[in-house]
Specification:
seven-stranded antiparallel β-sheet; alpha+beta; globular; 5 helices; Beta-galactosidase, Chain A, domain 5
């Protein structure tokens, strides 16, 4: 009876978090994880091969960093969802993750790749190539927002850094031609930063960028109106929770024409990227769809800390499956489950 009650608890807990296995690109110092369900991604860094992976954006499942698309009436398109003649697919090809989704009007493709910022160096930069293809015989209008849910500067309350060492600690909007070339999210304690680049080759400048509370924008219907100088709180639900939003107003796309854009997120503030990266270039990277198949119930607390949230949930699911198969849980299984739940609780308490 104890086993069954325990199973019910961890099964219900897991239902809130477990998702399909993500696709991953793993370099020496940078790792990318992309959901096959909706194309959302997570990005990680380590300074040596022996270190644990540290998230560069807030780590949650599904990821709170996302693309959102709108039609000509500013109505949200159900990007990433199935049904109603919607279709999506994700795959790894030549060290690149491709996610595409389409309905009867548009085909939206996100192409992720990790590349070196300089020749003959390890991968340290994420490039996201976006394409929107009009499938119809009529002109269509599509707008979109790219939300980057940063967190590195939240503890120190130095949320974003603009060129000239200008801090952004409250809501702020910057219009198209005033957008800086780089915005940084930086944790001065662990010396870890993420750099978001603008105005590089193959990039289209947003109509505006703005900094605001993540949940506040998520809960807003239609165009978000920035409250200049407002803090990043949405009390009592979301405190000190900032995000960067890249806002592209409606783009007119002719029939059978493809609109393209590029986004760059890097570990370094100085990049000299080649426009096209050869698929034969060596960038110290592997691809994977799983990382814990050989983990056992003997996993230590230290190992748990080094695992991503997705991998923790998969370990928990393996214990669930034992119970589903009427196998008796060992003391080690129960102890491991408690450790996993505690580790997940700690991480989800960061926001």
């Amino acid at each position: 009876m104890k086993n069954k009650l325990f199973y019910i608890f961890i099964f219900l807990f897991s239902l809130n978090f477990i998702h399909s296995e993500p696709l991953k690109l793993i370099g020496n110092f940078i790792m990318l994880s992309v959901s096959i369900e909706d194309g959302r991604f997570l990005l990680y860094q380590r300074t040596t091969k022996d270190e644990k992976w540290t998230p560069l954006i807030f780590e949650d499942f599904p990821s709170t960093t996302y693309f959102k698309f709108f039609d000509k009436n500013s109505k949200s398109i159900n990007f990433g969802e199935g049904g109603n003649k919607n279709y999506s697919e994700a795959k790894i090809t030549d060290n690149t993750i491709v996610y595409f989704w389409q309905n009867e009007v548009v085909n939206i493709k996100l192409i992720y790749k990790l590349v070196p910022s300089k020749e003959k160096s390890s991968a340290d930069t994420l490039i996201i190539d976006l394409s929107i293809l009009n499938l119809t015989e009529k002109e269509t209008e599509i707008g979109y927002v790219f939300c980057i849910d940063t967190y590195l500067g939240e503890k120190s309350k130095k949320h974003f850094i603009l060129p000239g060492n200008i801090l952004v600690n409250t809501e702020r909007e910057i219009t198209k031609y005033a957008i800086p070339s780089i915005i940084q999210s930086y944790d001065e304690k662990i010396k870890l930063g993420l750099n978001i680049f603008f105005n590089k080759e193959n990039q289209i400048l947003p109509d505006r960028i703005f900094f605001a509370n993540w949940k506040k924008v998520l809960d807003t219907i239609g165009n978000y109106k920035v409250e200049e100088g407002k803090d990043f709180d949405l009390k009592p639900y979301s405190i000190n929770d900032s995000a960067l939003f890249l806002d592209y107003k409606g783009n007119q796309i002719a029939p059978k024409i493809e609109l393209k854009n590029r986004f760059m997120l890097s570990l370094t503030s100085n990049i000299e990227l080649v426009t096209e990266v050869s698929t034969t270039t060596t960038i110290d990277m592997t691809t994977t769809t799983t990382t814990i198949d050989n983990k056992s119930s003997q996993t230590s607390n230290t190992e748990l800390v080094n695992l991503s949230l997705s991998d923790l949930l998969k370990l928990l699911d393996k214990i669930n499956k034992k119970l589903q198969n009427d196998e008796k849980l060992t003391d080690e299984d129960i102890k491991l489950s408690d450790q996993i739940l505690e580790e997940i609780k700690k991480r989800r308490g960061k926001k």
